[in-house]
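Troubleshooting log. The previous run stalled partway through. Resubmitting the same two chains, unchanged.
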Amino acid sequence: MNRKLMIVDDSNVVRRSIERAVNLDNLDIVGVAGNGIKAIELFKETQPDLVTMDITMPEMDGVQCVEELIELNPEVHILVVSALADKATAIEALSKGAQGYLSKPFNPKELNEAFLELLEDD
Amino acid sequence: MTSLTLEQTEQHDLQAFIDGTAHYFDHITGQEAVVGAPYLRTTENPSLEYTGMIGVSGSRKGFVYFTSSREMLENVLDAMGETDFCDANIADITGEIANTISGNVRRSYGKNFMISVPVVLAGGNHQVTFPGGNATYIIPVSWKQFEPRLMICLE
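Second attempt completed without errors. Output:
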């Protein structure tokens, strides 16, 4: 069965680069969102298995959104993809329930490896 | 205990931006950028066609700016595999470059180097406002045939 991916980032260019980079046979993109509030709405509609989450976004930041998504579904896999490269932010996101942290800038190979690592845990 | 002179402190502070800029272009485009030595701003308006501006608060206060020609930004999008060079995507990548370089600096500066979402200024004659009282350093970049700039104005 294919897994469902939702992409959350306030940059359209980054969202599209993630869409192009996804290169796993069993992963379908079910939605994209530009901020945390839209991400929660879309999450309820599409019930993704995997989410890429930016942190610095307007309306609601990624760390708060991670917390809310985990409350909705503790089983969801969340990969934070952020320019914030300090350890404390990564630890905070992971403590809220994210399972992976990839620093921007990223390349397609790194992104797909991070997806595989998260999905392997199942 | 070693103490640093003011010049050494400034060089140390700027090095994280220099390293971050080189890393960004190398990683995103696969083509290295040459990042030059920082110098103090002397001209009134050193901005190019597009400028991405990041507000900094917390342990440091001020702004980080990335400014570039449109043609260079189109080349960055192309290197990323993006084919749509519309105005919105050009503005978006301008902000994203400023955001990524500023965010990566937290590797050295820590979590209290807090950054805003980017604001993008566009147009050949746009004027960037620099907060008074602080020196602005310009870090020249050379990537392909283009010469964008990073501008750092921090307390």
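Takeaways: Chain A has a mean pLDDT of 93. Chain A has one domain: 3-120.
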